[in-house]
């Protein structure tokens, strides 16, 4: 809509918004490539389609690199112009939407960062928020386990409370005991990868089936070991070591004595204690005194 060369185009761009500019490469007083650069820098929402009588790949590439949305070589038909303009308009619209979306995400990050900073400023509230988030994560994992086997879910709940009790009796701080309780809840998360026909088998497992189940310690460790969050780090350690034995005959690493992490030893005792005290398809529950002796 604006004729008269580069100067007139600059004036028209200042006076009103334009969706698309058709710009010749060769114009009096200024190169069209220079005008493209000006439009790109000053009016990023305006799409430019270059028009030229020169079928030169270098010029076309230069124009596109400078920000042109298309390059038409004379002579061309009306349909070619319509297609070029439509493509340029569509691309400009998509880029504008993308820019708005990125700005929206940026604002969300800034808002949440500000909220987090305010939360961290209040130490007590920060601890409660972290604890709440941690318990939500643990509850989700428990629901996943319970969805496959209700008894496994109940075992996890009891075992985690036994672990916290042992941690307290061992002299750990209240904060560490709570961390042990939450982390030990995830000790069997690797069983999510054990096939149903083995995990839910209503009879004693065969040696090959037992070897499959034993993989859950390593699998749980792999699932949890990618996080640096203290709770998850401890959970990964417990998942990996809660079947090790003091005499080195456990699995998966045959660790012995104090080479077994302390919290792993706590979880091992709590895990076996609950297993002995619970009825299974292949065994009855043991009496409390016999369980304590074992």
Distance between the ends? 92 Å
Global mean pLDDT: 82
Ranges with pLDDT <50 over ≥5 residues? 123-127
Coarse morphology: elongated
Number of strands: 3
Helix fraction by DSSP (H/I, runs of at least 4): 55-70%
Strand content: 5-15%
Helix-strand topology string: HEHEHEHHHHHHHHHH
Features:
single chain, about 290 residues, mainly alpha, 3-stranded parallel sheet, 13 helices, about 5% strand
Compact overview of the structure:
The protein has 294 residues and is mainly alpha-helical. It has helices at 6-15, 32-42, 57-66, 78-121, 123-148, 150-169, 174-184, 196-199, 207-214, 216-224, 230-241, 262-277, 288-293, and strands at 20-24, 47-52, 70-73. A 3-stranded parallel β-sheet has the order 1-2-3, sandwiched between helices.
If you had to describe this structure to a student in words, what would you say it looks like?
This protein is mainly alpha-helical and 294 residues long. Helices cover 64% and strands 5% of the residues. A 3-stranded parallel sheet has the order 1-2-3, with helices on both faces. Helix 7 (174-184) crosses helix 11 (230-241). It is elongated, with a radius of gyration of 34 Å.
């Amino acid at each position: 809509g604006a004729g008269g060369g580069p100067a007139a185009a600059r004036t028209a761009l200042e006076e009103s918004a334009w969706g698309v500019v058709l710009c010749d490469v060769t114009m009096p007083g200024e190169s069209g490539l220079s005008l493209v650069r000006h439009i790109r820098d000053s009016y990023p929402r305006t799409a430019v389609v270059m028009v030229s009588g020169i079928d030169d790949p270098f010029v076309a590439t230069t124009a596109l690199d400078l920000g042109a949305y298309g390059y038409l070589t004379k002579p061309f038909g009306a349909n070619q112009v319509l297609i070029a303009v439509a493509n340029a308009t569509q691309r400009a619209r998509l880029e504008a939407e993308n820019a708005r979306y990125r700005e929206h995400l940026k604002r969300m990050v800034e808002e949440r960062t500000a909220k987090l900073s305010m939360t961290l400023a209040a130490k007590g509230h920060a601890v409660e928020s972290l604890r709440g988030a941690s318990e939500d994560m643990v509850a989700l994992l428990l629901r996943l386990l319970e969805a496959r086997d209700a008894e496994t879910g109940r075992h996890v709940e009891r075992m985690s409370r036994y672990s916290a009790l042992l941690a307290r009796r061992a002299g750990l701080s209240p904060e560490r005991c709570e961390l042990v309780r939450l982390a030990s809840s995830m000790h069997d998360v690797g069983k999510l990868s054990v096939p149903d026909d083995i995990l839910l088998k209503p009879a004693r497992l065969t040696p090959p089936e037992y070897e499959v189940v034993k993989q859950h310690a390593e699998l749980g460790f792999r699932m949890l070991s990618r996080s640096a969050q203290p709770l998850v780090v401890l959970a990964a350690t417990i998942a990996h070591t809660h079947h090790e034995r003091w005499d080195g005959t456990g699995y998966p690493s045959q660790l012995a004595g104090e080479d077994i992490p302390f919290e792993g030893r706590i979880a091992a005792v709590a895990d076996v204690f609950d297993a002995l005290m619970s009825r299974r398809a292949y065994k009855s529950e043991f009496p409390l005194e016999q369980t304590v002796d074992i």
